[in-house]
User: Fold DinB family protein from Nonomuraea rosea.
Amino acid sequence: MPEPSRQLSDPQELLAGYLDFYREEILRALEGFPEPGVSRVPSGWTPLALLKHLAYMERRWFVWGFEGEQVEAPHGDRDESGELVSTESFEEIRDFYLAQCRRSREIVAKARPSDLAARTGRFLPPKEAPTLGWIMFHVLEEYMRHAGHLDIARELAGP
Assistant:
């Protein structure tokens, strides 16, 4: 998927376009990744766990955060050290991730960037409710950061 058009000026279309661009970049980086469940870094982080983290991140910010829907385990299943537990296959996590991305797109499509997040989910008073535009930009920042992490992990994994 190419970057969004350079002619885009609508902030929502631009943010939505770049979110989709980076969602695809993450999947592209994982395609053919040798053993995505194996860590190549001292922290023990794995590309597969990153994909699962991103699925929960989508759900946490758009469903729980913006929509205010109650979700079970908004940060995912964690072990006693706080690490995300990943026992599912790559295909199962990818399907969960794609479902969360679809749901996020649906939420974004029916709102405006200036709309405030619900005060019933993640942003209960006294927390300040962010706008959808702020949430979209924050999620985009997270994608850009993690796409870079995947690039490095891919390089460490070798050809």
The domain at 11-157 is CATH 1.20.120.450 (Four Helix Bundle (Hemerythrin (Met), subunit A)). The chain has four helices and no strands. The mean pLDDT is 90. The radius of gyration is 16 Å.
